[in-house]
Every structure is written in structure tokens, then in C-alpha cells.
Design goal:
The chain is α+β, with helices and mostly antiparallel strands. Strand 3 (39-42) and strand 4 (45-47) form a beta hairpin. The structure holds one RNA strand.
RNA sequence: GCCACCGUAGCUCAGUUGGCAGAGCGGCAGUUUUGUAAACUGCGGGUCGGGGGUUCAAGUCCCUCCGGUGGCUCCA
């Protein structure tokens, strides 16, 4: 037997015989480690604890303290789910069952649908199997043999045919369960301590809607019951911040069937927030060189044929209106209109960059199943702009947009976001305009701009716009779903479609480059995000009602109205609660409405010419003169404070 | 669009094996004049999402359409 050397995380080395298993090493260190061990990491790669080590390597024994072990743990729980389903419903065919961000899923093909009751049964069966304390056993199989073995399981066959090497691994769970799987897995089911099945959903085989739809069971698993409960509690808490729920409770917006799906109506308070946000971004743009325009929400369909929207985007547009002599469509994007604004006069290189901006309302025929509250709608207003510039100005313009994004996010209190470089997809070429040189150029320009700014990003093939690559800024909503908010796109395609030109220093015609950019995203999506970010308790500068005066009895009605008048004169959005109710109720209602400041006025305040200030987060702040209060609230508004 | 689930008063929700549609909150009227998160009494309020079917009888069972939710696909 040859000797090999194992390097442990603390740097120490052990000489062992080749073929020693990680679990043996763990035992030699301490029985407690061997007991806590879930999976090994060999030269940086996850491996089973009983996988023989054949050559010198670094070895780490992972326990429940390690987050990577949690993925393996959840993967093994997914196998446990599949084993339970097969015991209960043997006719079921297995798809794939990976660990995911907050849990795991497994896809099944079965003629009848799983019901919520089935989920309970399956969960019970999972515990039953778990309590057998059976090992996850690794088996090596030859490809041709495997194809025969899985001939009854069409999805596994496909996977083996596509992915398996000549010899592949499978994992058993008891005598009746075997699954084509790369692993690694936990040593045995006794290591699984806490899991829960959460939901049933449809999912297309291999994520392609042309394929068969499978039944996906989602679940989650944690190392301890306590962590599981904490996670479920967090989910419950998150639901309370859902913008759809708060939008109704705080009377921000409503959606009415009589108008149509995905067509929200902004109620006065929501409209106030939206208007504040619009005023804010318009001012930011005015001060950074943008020119604002108004253009119509519809146009002749021919305009979109020329831009390429019709060819690539038709299915996502509301169908054309047939008029007497022409066809009109609601615009799904604002770029063609802005291009025509650029074209409205001859442009010199001295004019560039030309930055044309608009809060442009657009209409997209989103598929019904995709609609959601304010975050996914069919009528939306984009904080849109198109920058027409010379190629050598791209980098500077890109940088300026990024600076604007950073400033806006800071003002809005947004701190959690990531950059995604959205590229075209070599596989689904038909989704994009066919011009490989342009794509290569656009993608290179974006990469260079990001790299020179030193900003981290992930590349996402298949996420580009049909006309070009883009840098997207991704935010996650309260349930953890990531969406694109800000976006910056370098476009060589549309300028060429519209034969855009400027006269350069050489007196000749040159083609400008277009940068499409949205900073605040759509008003709808951004406000949905802000509602959830602040759980409806908007920063004072954005709060639809900033202060409410609460007279204790009707003796103070006149005094309260006087206070209101001073607030309104000072530009504060305020109201008075004159209802014949106890102050406790008025406070409760104002709290539930998340109004930042409550100004209680009773006999004492009236006599002293003061107001008793109560803050929604910090409670009673004591009596102040109206001037003192105004000075304080003005400071919060001017600084766009996110805390008060 | 697809799969699953859901749709009862303005809101949140009960409603048993098919047998007289309910509660709390909100609204309205009155009483109460109130000090930092819910005063008291009374009164209205419903094509049980729409349509069709089964049945002596349908909120309840079946079909279909519409809408919502969770996913999938698509996407700002």
C-alpha cells in the first residue's frame, strides 16, 4: 500500500495509506468530529465521507457549522423526498431534485396531481424512512448498463444519455431506491433532523415550456428544528411586508377587474409617493444634463417594424388597432420615439452627448400568469432616457449613469443590490438581432466600463435585450425574488436601423451610439420595492402624510386646525383627526397608517401654544413649539433621512 | 400561457355528510369629551366571482369562463 499525505485546514499533515476515507481521518482526530461529520471537502471539492482518498490531498471535514454542508444536507433531503414518493406512489417517474437557495425541490412525472394532503402523507413517509437510519450508498455503473436499468424512467434515461460519463455514480436509499446522481450525500438518513414540504408547483422538464410539465414539490431543511421554525417565522413576517397587502391596507393602489389585469390604479396616497419620486428623479436628471420630452403612448406599427420590436417583441405587445388607413400599437418601449426626437434636427459632434429623457408610459402584454401587484404589470411608467453619443464618449456616459444610480439608491435608502451583465445567448440566437460583431462590441464595451469602475458583476447569458447587451441592477423583493430595476444598455443596433447621424469634426456623417438607461426603473416596480423595503413606513420625505394633528377633545378643534394650517403653510403634508374618538384610537390608527409624526393637542398644549410630538417609531417626544417641530421635520425631509 | 390551490359583506375570515348566509373590524346614527396602540349602544350592509348543469333542495357536488396566489415559462 502506498502512502499519501493529507493536509488538514489547520495546516497539519498526516501520512495515511492510499484508500483511507475522510471518515477514518475524522475518527483519528476525534470521535466527536466523526459523529458531527456530514460531508468532506477534498482539494476544494465536496466528497462523500466514505470516498477513498487515492492521492495526497487537502481535506476538510464539514459539519453543521458549514454552509456548504447545508446544500449537501438539503440535497440528501431531496433524495429522501423522492424515496418517500416512490414508496407511496410507485408509478411516479423521477426528474431532478437539487438543493436551492432556501431549500430543495424534486420534480416528478405522475399521471395524477399531488394534493396538499399528499404532501402531509409524503412528509410522514419521509420521517419513517429517515428513522430507518439507512445509508446513502454510492454505486458505480456503466453507462450502457445504466440506460437499461433506467429504461422505465424516461427522464433519468435522458439525463444519463446526455450527462453521464462512461462510468457514473448512483446513490441508493434502502433496497428499493436508486437515483442517478453526482452526489455527494450525507452518510445516512439519521443526520437529517428538520425539514418541511412547502408547496407543489408545475415546472417544465428542463425548463422548456415545449416540454412536458412535471409536478415539483418544494421543501426546506435545516440542521435543527429551531432553525427551521425561525425560517418559517421569517417567511410569515415577510408576508406582512408584501407590497400588495400593504398597498391595500395603506390605500396606495388598487387593481380592479373592471379595468383589467396588470393595470393598477394609483390611489391618492400612492400617487403622492409616485409624484414625489418622479419630481425627485426629474430634478436629478435636469441637474445632470438630461433634456425632458413628452412623446405619445402609441405609434404606427411600422415604426416598430423598423426598430425591430415587431419582429422580436410582437408577442409581448398589445395587438395592433386596425384604423381606417393604418395600424397603431401601444408602445412597449420608448426608444423609437426618442430616436425620432434625436432625428428632429441635424446634430453636430459638438451637440453630443444628447440625453433625452421622459417618464415614458409603456404597455406590454405580459402573460397573465406573470402579473403580480405593482412589480409586474401591463401598463408602466419608466424613468427612461436615451443618450446619443460618440463611441469615444460611451465610457464617460456609462460612468455618469452609474454615479447617478449610486446617488439615487443612496437617497432612497437602497443598500442591497447586485450588478448583472446580461449577455446574449449562443443557443437561443433567434431571440436577438443577428449581428455578431455588434454583440461582441457591445459586450466588450460594458465589460470594460464595469472593470474600469472596479464594480463586481455576474455574467448572465440569455438576459440581454433583443437589440443589445445590458448592465442590470438586481434587487430582491421581500420574498427573495430578484428583479431588474435599473438597467443600462449600449446599443449599436437601433442607430443603424434608423440610420442616425451626426456631423463630425471632419465634416462627414458619422453614426452615434445609443445608451438606453433607466435609473429608478418603472415607478410601479420601484414603489413596490420601497413599500416592502420600508414595510410601508416611508422615510419622511416620501411619506404621503407626514404629520397628523390629534386633538384630544373638541375643545381643541380650532387650535388643531390652526396647527394644521401652519404645517401646510410650511409645505408639510398633514391632516387633522377631528373624529369624536379617544386619543388612544387616533394614535392607533395613525400608527397603523405609519404616519411619521402625531401631534397630540390637549388643553395643556393649547394653553402653552405647543404640540405633544409622538414619532411612529420612538413614541412620545414631549411637548414642542410648532417651530421646533417644523425645524426638526424639515431637517429630516431635506436630508432624505431614512431613520427619524 | 401552463400546473396546483383559492374566490362568501368595504376589509379579514367562519360556514359540518347538500337543508333558513354568519362573526369581528370598518361604515352610518346616537351616547360619551376622552392624554400616547381599539369607549358604549343601536342600525344598515350579500346575484356566496360570472354562466351552465345535477338535485325536491347547491355557498357546499359537476362543467365552463373570469379573477387572485404559489411555481414554471417570459420579463423593466
Amino acid at each position: 500500500m502506498s502512502q499519501i499525505e493529507i493536509t488538514l485546514p489547520d495546516g497539519s499533515r498526516q501520512a495515511v495509506e492510499a484508500g483511507t476515507r475522510p471518515i477514518d481521518v475524522a475518527r483519528s482526530i476525534s470521535p466527536r468530529l466523526a459523529d458531527a461529520a456530514l460531508v468532506a471537502k477534498l482539494d476544494g471539492n465536496l466528497a462523500d465521507l466514505d470516498q477513498p482518498i487515492e492521492k495526497s490531498a487537502s481535506l476538510e471535514i464539514l459539519t453543521a457549522k458549514n454552509s456548504e454542508a447545508l446544500y449537501v444536507y438539503r440535497h440528501s433531503t431531496a433524495h429522501l423526498l423522492a424515496a418517500a414518493v416512490l414508496e407511496l406512489y410507485p408509478e411516479t417517474k423521477l426528474g431532478i431534485g437539487p438543493p436551492i437557495e432556501n431549500g430543495f425541490y424534486y420534480d416528478f412525472d405522475r399521471p395524477t396531481a399531488f394534493t396538499p394532503e399528499d404532501l402531509e402523507k409524503i412528509e410522514k413517509k419521509m420521517w419513517e424512512i429517515r428513522n430507518r437510519h439507512i445509508p446513502y450508498e454510492r454505486i458505480f455503473t456503466r453507462k450502457e448498463e445504466g440506460l437499461k436499468k433506467y429504461s422505465e424512467a424516461w427522464m433519468k434515461c435522458e439525463l444519463i444519455a446526455e450527462r453521464a460519463g462512461e462510468i457514473f455514480t448512483e446513490y441508493t436509499l434502502g433496497p428499493a431506491f436508486i437515483d442517478f446522481c453526482r452526489g455527494p450525500h450525507l452518510p445516512d438518513t439519521s443526520k437529517i433532523k428538520a425539514f418541511k414540504l412547502l408547496s407543489i408547483a408545475g415546472a417544465y422538464w428542463k425548463g422548456d415550456e415545449h416540454n412536458k410539465q412535471l409536478q415539483r414539490i418544494y421543501g426546506t431543511a435545516f440542521f435543527t428544528q429551531k432553525e427551521l421554525e425561525e425560517y418559517l417565522n421569517r417567511l410569515e413576517e415577510a408576508k406582512k411586508r408584501d407590497h400588495r397587502k400593504l398597498g391595500k391596507e395603506l390605500e396606495l393602489f388598487t387593481v380592479n377587474e373592471a379595468v383589467g389585469s396588470g393595470l393598477p390604479l394609483w390611489l391618492p396616497k400612492g400617487a403622492t409617493i409616485r409624484r414625489l419620486l418622479e419630481d425627485y428623479i426629474l430634478e436629478k436628471e435636469r441637474s445632470t444634463g438630461y433634456q425632458h420630452v413628452y412623446t405619445p403612448d402609441l405609434a404606427k406599427v411600422d415604426l416598430y417594424k423598423r426598430s425591430g420590436h415587431w419582429e422580436h417583441y410582437k408577442d409581448d405587445m398589445f395587438p395592433p388597432m386596425d384604423l381606417e388607413t393604418e395600424q397603431m400599437v401601444l408602445r412597449p418601449m420608448n426608444c423609437p420615439h426618442h430616436i425620432l426626437v434625436y432625428e428632429s434636427r441635424q446634430r453636430s459632434y459638438r451637440d453630443l452627448p444628447v440625453r433625452i429623457a421622459e417618464l415614458g408610459t409603456m404597455y406590454r402584454y405580459e402573460r397573465s400568469g406573470a402579473l403580480s401587484g405593482l412589480s409586474r404589470v401591463r401598463a408602466m411608467t419608466l424613468n427612461d432616457a436615451h443618450i446619443f453619443c460618440r463611441p469615444d464618449q460611451i465610457k464617460e456616459e456609462f460612468t455618469k449613469v452609474m454615479q447617478l444610480v449610486e446617488q439615487v439608491y443612496k437617497d432612497l435608502g437602497i443598500t442591497q443590490y447586485r450588478y448583472r451583465l446580461s449577455l446574449h445567448d449562443d443557443v437561443k440566437k433567434e431571440k436577438y438581432v443577428d449581428n455578431p460583431e455588434m454583440w461582441a462590441l457591445g459586450e466588450r464595451v460594458l465589460r470594460e466600463a464595469m472593470d474600469s469602475l472596479g464594480l463586481p458583476y455576474v455574467e448572465a447569458p440569455g438576459e440581454a435585450a433583443f437589440y443589445g447587451p445590458k448592465l442590470d441592477i438586481q434587487l430582491a423583493d421581500v420574498m427573495g425574488h430578484e428583479e431588474t430595476y435599473s438597467t443600462i444598455q449600449v446599443d449599436f443596433h437601433l442607430p443603424s436601423q434608423f440610420a442616425l447621424e451626426y456631423i463630425a469634426a471632419d465634416g462627414k456623417q458619422h453614426r452615434p451610439v445609443m445608451i438606453h438607461r433607466a435609473v429608478v426603473s418603472t415607478m410601479e416596480r420601484m414603489i413596490a420595492y420601497l413599500i416592502e423595503l420600508y414595510a410601508g413606513a416611508f422615510p419622511v420625505w416620501l411619506a404621503p402624510v407626514q404629520a397628523i394633528v390629534l386633538p384630544i377633545t373638541d375643545r381643541q378643534t380650532e387650535y388643531a386646525r390652526g396647527i394644521l394650517n401652519r404645517l401646510e403653510t410650511a409645505g408639510i403634508r398633514a391632516s387633522v383627526d377631528e373624529r369624536n374618538e379617544k386619543v388612544n384610537l387616533k394614535i392607533r390608527d395613525a400608527q397603523l397608517q405609519k404616519i411619521p409624526f402625531m401631534l397630540v393637542v390637549g388643553d395643556r398644549e393649547q394653553e402653552n401654544g405647543k404640540v405633544a410630538v409622538r414619532n411612529r417609531k420612538h413614541g412620545d417626544q414631549g411637548a414642542k413649539t410648532p417651530e421646533e417641530f417644523l425645524a426638526g421635520i424639515r431637517a429630516l425631509i431635506e436630508s432624505k433621512a431614512v431613520t427619524e
